[in-house]
């Protein structure tokens, strides 16, 4: 299976996946399943102090989804005013 793109989907927890937002991520050369090249993606307009679910699926050159979605990643966004330099812990990644 060769992926020419990935679709990243995210939603607020516990909304259904039917309300998810998607972002298509194109890759410069087709990538085979199991290849661990690094791809960086930014997701904008997330709300502070909110829990999100994210998942990823491979897309072939014809736009077809390959295989199934990845396991869900659950993350909490930082609270307003939370910075990595603070001594108290105010953000969590599960």
Account of the 3D structure:
The protein has 94 residues and is an all-beta fold. The protein has strands spanning 2-12, 21-32, 51-59, 65-66, 73-76. The mean pLDDT is 81. The two termini are 30 Å apart. Strands 1, 2, 3, 4 and 5 form a five-stranded antiparallel beta sheet that branches. It has one domain: Immunoglobulin-like.
Helix/strand layout:
Layout: E1 2-12, E2 21-32, E3 51-59, E4 65-66, E5 73-76
Antiparallel strand pairs: 1-2, 1-3, 3-4, 3-5
Cα end-to-end separation = 30 Å
Low-confidence blocks of residues: none
Inertia-based shape: globular
What is the H level of CATH, i.e. the homologous superfamily?
A: Immunoglobulins
**Strand coverage percent:** 35-45%
The number of domains is 1
Major beta sheet, specifics? 5 strands, antiparallel
Mind telling me the CATH class?
A: Mainly Beta
Structure classification: mainly beta
Q: Return the string of H and E elements.
A: EEEEE
Note the total helix count: 0
Q: What is the β-strand count?
A: 5
- The pLDDT mean sits at 81
Helix content: under 10%
Please give the radius of gyration in angstroms. 16 Å
């Amino acid at each position: 299976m060769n992926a020419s793109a990935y679709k990243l989907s995210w939603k607020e927890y516990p909304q259904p996946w039917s309300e998810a937002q998607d972002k298509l991520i194109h890759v410069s050369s087709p990538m085979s399943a199991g290849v661990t090249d690094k791809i960086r993606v930014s997701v904008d307009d997330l709300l502070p102090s909110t829990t999100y679910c994210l998942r990823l699926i491979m897309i072939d050159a014809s736009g077809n989804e390959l295989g199934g979605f990845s396991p869900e990643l659950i993350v909490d966004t930082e609270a307003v005013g939370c910075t990595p330099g603070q001594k108290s812990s105010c953000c969590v990644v599960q």
